[in-house]
Amino acid sequence: MRPVTQKRKPAGKVASRSGTQKGRAAATRGGQPTRRATSVAPGNRRAKSAKQFGKRGTRPPSRIVAFFENIRDGRLPGKLIFFSSVAFMSAAIVYGLAVGGHFAAAGAFVVAKVDGAVAQAGFEVSEVTVEGRDRTTRQDVLRALRVERGQSIFDVDLVAARDELMRLDWISDATVTRILPGRVHVEIVERKPYAVWQRGGALSVIDADGNPITEDGVDAYGHLPFVVGHGAARKAAAFTTMVAQWPELQARVRAYVRVGDRRWNLRLENGVDVLLPETDVDVALSELVTLDQSHRLLARDIEAIDMRLGDRFSVRLSPDAAARRNAVVEDWENRARGDDT
Q1: Same structural domain for residues 182 and 215?
Q2: For labelling alongside 339, which of 61, 84, 87, 322 has CA 20 to 30 A away?
Q3: Residue 87 phi/psi, 5° resolution?
Q4: What tens digit of pLDDT does each residue of 188-206 get?
């Protein structure tokens, strides 16, 4: 039998392992780890390895970059050309339908069919009632509403109907409501005529605020006060109310004339003009009534009474009265000369 021999490890390796153990023991002296010595100074970074990975110049281009590079070089993808053509043709077709009015016609057709179905279901206009109408004709109201019997009640434009009613002469306010299933109800508030206003050669009926109502059928309002001149409509209510304090004078007034938008004149039924001052008008009117009661001044043959001066008044005679007065004065003068001779 061959003897078994034990292999021994090289002495250098054993020494190196023991040296390593000695180094570890030295690094952990006193139970605390110690830092290894290095040749790099504190604050300086280690030198990079000469080998660099992932350089920008060596990376493959992304899909977006490749896409734009192909477009720049004139190499367009087939899918892009196809979808662009489809989109362009679709836009052209939509534009043609819109310009040609086909969309509007289709919408109107659908709306008409829906309205017809709603009307057949019982929601159709069968009655129109109006409340508050006095001077406005029923034909004008129906024309403003634009409502026809048998149309869908939901097809009635309430806002537009009210706007059309507000354009009528006599209407100051209006309300339009739909009462299901088939009634349209209108409530209107009409303006109150206050006077007839003449400006230039035009006549119109006005309300108490001086707003013109209508120029049609003015002859039917001859019983209203008649005011004349620029600014007369705006001041008419206040002045006529003042004159009404003397009913016997008011009954004889035919026209209230505004002069220069500063003062008033009264044109009486017998043609006499009363010239009133700009201020203290009530005082002048009171004196005028007193003079008429004591001397029947307004019934005399005169043309005008000027009361614009506060301390006195003057009277302008009519031509006939002036001629008679001149004759009397001349007779007195002749008699006086005869007596002297």
Answers
A1: no
A2: 322
A3: -65, -40
A4: 999 999 999 999 889 999 9
Do 201 and 272 lie in a common domain?
Answer: yes
From 146, 174, 190, give the residue that closes a domain: 190
Summarised one tens digit per residue, pLDDT across range 118-127 is 455 457 888 9
Chain centroid to CA 88: how far? 42
One domain, residues 151 and 245 = no
The domain of 163 spans 124-190
Pairing of strands 183-190, 127-131: parallel
What residues contact 165, with CB distance under 8 A and at least 6 apart? 141, 144, 145, 171, 174, 176, 186, 188
pLDDT in tens, 89-106: 777 676 666 666 655 555
Q: Is residue 26 part of a domain?
A: no
Domain count, the chain: 2
Same domain, 201 and 323: yes
How is residue 262 written in tokens?
């500063």
How far, in whole angstroms, is CA 166 from its chain's centroid? 15
- Give φ, ψ of 86 to 5 degrees: -60, -45
SS (HEC) of 35-82: CCCCCCCCCCCCCCCCCCCCCHHHCCCCHHHHHHHHHHCCCCCHHHHH
The CATH number linked to 266 is 3.40.50.11690
pLDDT digits (tens, 9 = 90+) for 146-189: 998 888 888 899 999 999 999 999 999 999 999 988 999 999 99
163, 190, 217 — which closes off a domain?
Answer: 190
What pLDDT shows up at residue 228? 97
Angle between helix 138-145 and 158-166 (nearest 10): 140
